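Appendix B. Chain record.
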Amino acid sequence: MVEGIPEIDQDLCTGCNSCTLECPTGAVGIVNGKAVIINPENCQYCTDCERVCPAGAIKCPFDIVLVAKQS
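Structure tokens predicted for this chain:
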């Protein structure tokens, strides 16, 4: 596992392509009928892939923290 990118459970993945269509940066692709992170450097941690996965195969184990800009 690479820290800070979505984890994809290959046993649960059905290869439906929902995540690849939703990913705005092309970080997710289908290889041998399963979703994989093919461009981890492109992942923007938007969690769209996790949200659209109908099989629940994608988990984003990282926290997104919003910090208010101080003026």
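Further analysis of this model is presented in Appendix C.
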